[in-house]
Design brief:
The protein is of the alpha+beta class. The protein is built from four helices and seven strands; from the N terminus they run H-H-E-E-E-E-H-E-E-E-H. The chain is 46% helix and 21% strand.
Length: 210
Amino acid sequence: MTKKVLSATFVSWLPFAIIIVIFSGLAYAVVQQNYRQGANDPQIQIAQDLATAISQGQPADQIVPAQGTTELAGTLSPFVMIYSATSTLTGSSALLDGKNPSFPTSVFDYVRVHGQWRQTWQPASNVREAVVVQSYTSGASSGFLVVGRSLKEIEIRENQTQRLSGLAGILALVLTFVVMLWTTNSAMKPKVIEEVTLDVKLTDTTPKPM
């Protein structure tokens, strides 16, 4: 196999390689986003249910205690934090290193306009939470509900999906290159032309004299 064959194969294979890489990345992105957006669903339900309960008269301090009870780093369970309209923490079911975690209250400016905020919150290097922030109104008072849940299991699935999509992409790249290499080599292989020699025997058909 010559360098000419390899070069021709690479040129022909390159567009297919680019397409394979793009589609492998898109496949991972679609699945990853599905996992990540689905991680918000329980928090959305909890936040909306609690906002409805508070609007119907249930005191916010009856939903969660003033001091958290569960360490975020050690649980997959959802947590709830309640803030007043002045961004003051009034209740929390979450702890971070033995204290109520400090949530970035600048998010509340967005929630005041749009009603809800969904994002990833990382209060510590080993803690990542899928968080939904929902505004609530109870009579003349109002505030914000912060509902979150650990992304630990979601990130495990994302990593598995990344590995699988990467392996599938590599396998597709190798197989397409091998097939195109074989095709190109066959097309560029010198063809042997067989010379056929015809022995023609001439017979004298001239009539003999009588």
